[in-house]
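yo

u said u wanted the structure for the complex thing, so here. seqs first:
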Amino acid sequence: MLGRTAVSYLRKQTQVHILKRGFADQVAQGSEKLKLSFATPTSALRKDASVDMVVFPAATGMMGVLPQHVPTVAQLKPGVVTVIEEGKEDKYFVSSGFAFVTQDRTDILAVEAVRLEDLDKEAVQRGLSECESAINSASDEVSQAIAQIGVEVHSAMKSALES
Amino acid sequence: MAAMQRSFMNVVSKSRNLVGSNPRTPSWSLNRNRTADQALLLATENNTSSGVDFQVRFASLKAVRSRMRSVASISKITKAMKMVAAAKLRGVQARQESSKPFTAGLKSFLKSTFSEIEGKETSGNHLIVAVTSDRGLCGGVNSNVVREIRKLLHEDKQNQYAILLCGDKGRDGLQRLYRNLFVVTIKDVFRAPVNFAQTCVVAEEIFKQKFDSVAIFYNHFKNAISQVVTRKVIPGLDIILKHAETFDSYEFESDMDSAQTLTDLYEFQFAVQLFDALLENATSEQAARMSAMDNATRNASEMYQKLTLTYNRQRQSVITGELIEIISGAEAL
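structre next:
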């Protein structure tokens, strides 16, 4: 059914496969596009752009959105947002935020977002080990939680770079 | 001739307004410790009567000259402030423009959910967030916010109010009457350009308070010459949770229970709305400062022109007086 198309985002090869076989065809038939706004407090990465599909890291798992998706509010966790536009993929890393899918448009509001290729592998590795050591040396709950978040974000960045 | 006399009187009375430190008409005597301003007053008075006194004329010429100098330097300062405000306005406006999609993305969602809840509960504890600037000399933006809050507090005696001040200038306007309602004062919010991280700090401070609804008072930036005081009401978290059925048309994707998700969503949308309000106010502040300083510069140059006129007239009369003396002296021989 076209209305409910939350797909779990698998590996890259299978994703292309799924697109080819199922959803992309249907979208092409209706010649419908997804109206997407993807913004951070300081910049707009997409503003009312017409895209084919967007995949974002919801707290429950990766979530793909096609046109006419059921209205959804999704909390984002650190991970990769993929915007698929005319067969091209644009990848961004987001730290956190919310995504609002309504009948006629989709808004992804990320607190921070950078292009995936702008991430520095070595800096990520360094940050990860720093945060890990901070967890062990944390004296109170708050600083431990902060370090925990740091580890989560850094390991998400690391796995995003490796995939 | 009569017309000339009248217009001259006009100038004199206006220049007295400009000098305007002492409304009292000074007595005509050589008062040794009179100030330069008074000397100028005396001189302008004296010009309309027939009395002639060199010493006073000298003093007054000097007074007019120093007055001209100070007006000129004031106009230089206000002009510089205007330029600075214009440059800052450009910067902050660009910031606001680039954040528009971020805040607008939430607005369409809020319109269908939060705004329905908004009108349902109006009584209880209200928190007023007064967004004002830290610096003065920016026209009426701060006093307009203060006036709006005063009006609300004056008219509504039934509900409990608390005030959280964001920016320094709101405190000056409200502390005489409503000091006991202050809960938190945050200053230097606008020192650095408004950013989201800083807004979150302010928002956390707000969440520490107990309230049923929050009203954010700020200046909405319409354009460079018009800013409108706006009251943005956001219902409290408890009310949102009570009316959670409003969100039934949406599916929630979260690994936590729905109350926690709703709390997270609430805090996020609050921070975004506050961010929007702070940005609007920062833009309004710079725009208002720019036009205020523009007006000040124009007034100063007007003042300078009038003083130049007075100065030249005085100088001319000194020369005329001296000529008369020389001629009559020569004739007497």
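The interface with chain A takes residues 95, 98-102, 104-106, 108-109, 112, 195-196, 247, 249-256, 261, 264-265, 268, 272, 275 of chain B (CB under 8 Å). The two ends of chain B are 34 Å apart (CA to CA).
cya
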